[in-house]
Amino acid sequence: MSRLSDVFSRCQTEQRAALVGYLTAGDPDVAASEPLLQALAGQVDVLEIGMPFSDPMADGPVIQAASERALASGTHMADVFRLTAKVRAAHPELGIVLMGYANIPFVMGFETFAQQAVAAGADAVLLVDIPPEEGHICDTIFQKHGLDRILLLSPTSNDARIRLACAHASGFIYYVSLNGITGADMGAVAGIEQQVQRIRQHTNLPICVGFGVKTPQQAADVGAFSDGVVVGSHFVRMIPEQLGQTTQVAEQLAHEAASLRQAMIRS
User: Fold this and answer.
1) Smaller CB count within 10 Å for the chain: N or C?
2) Average pLDDT, the chain
3) Which pLDDT does position 1 carry in this prediction?
4) Residue 211: what pLDDT?
């Protein structure tokens, strides 16, 4: 079993959905980013580490700004891999997903990228702009190195597309709960549950729901029927609100993540 499989099995035993948390590597700078990533890693089950990119088309203003801060401070992919390795060393059972856009591994070369990702301790990659139809450019390489490739589905995905994504994905399915960008308000829970059940007809992979989850109540509502709840913008927003106060932000990240995870325990 992969480390991600172990994570979801452990959460199932604990009768709760997994908490998947996101931060952009190098935000607000490389030195400050490490304690923030470590603080969040201590309270989540899966950590999505964002690879800063100049044109993050799927992201809203909060995560766009995080990429801008990281790039402006001089963050490079070597830094992303070093930060990932430090998180892995401190949290051996944590699931780690590198999240970003195709330009980064394409320019590096998918083979080189996969080698360095695995060496750093990553379990999976989520490249939002490589749909399953284009997976031939990276799937075989990632499989060779034991990297899961997380694929996205959305409210507009029809049955044919659901089948296609489920056939090519590994690790888990990421269901985007709304038609929009990260950080927008979450859609109606009943509609999200209906779509999750629809996807379950086509896969045995865990299904995680993201985009718009901000509160413990939302996490509890979504976690009642999903295998994982993804929280990104809510965490990232804390960084510019207390810029330069790394210790305070780290404490707030840990507190907020613990509250969300606690709320997802099913009674």
Assistant:
1) C
2) 94
3) 61
4) 84
Supply the DSSP string of 94-133, one letter for each residue. -EEEEEE-THHHHHH-HHHHHHHHHHHT--EEEETT--GG
173, 199 in Cβ contact below 8 A?
yes
**pLDDT tens per residue across span 100-137:** 999 999 999 999 999 999 999 999 999 999 999 999 99
Task: Assign 228 to helix, strand or coil.
Answer: strand
Instruction: Return d(Cα 147, Cα 179) in angstroms, integer.
Output: 28
| pLDDT higher than 80, residue 175 | yes
Domain boundaries, the chain: 3-150+216-262
* Cβ–Cβ under 8 Å, residues 122 and 95: no
Please say whether the beta carbons of 79 and 25 come within 8 A.
yes
Asked whether the beta carbons of 61 and 44 are under 8 A apart, the reply is no
Alpha carbons within 13 angstroms on the beta-carbon side of residue 122 total 28
pTM of the prediction? 0.95
Hey, which residues are catalytic here?
48, 59
Architecture of domain 3-150+216-262: Alpha-Beta Barrel (3.20)
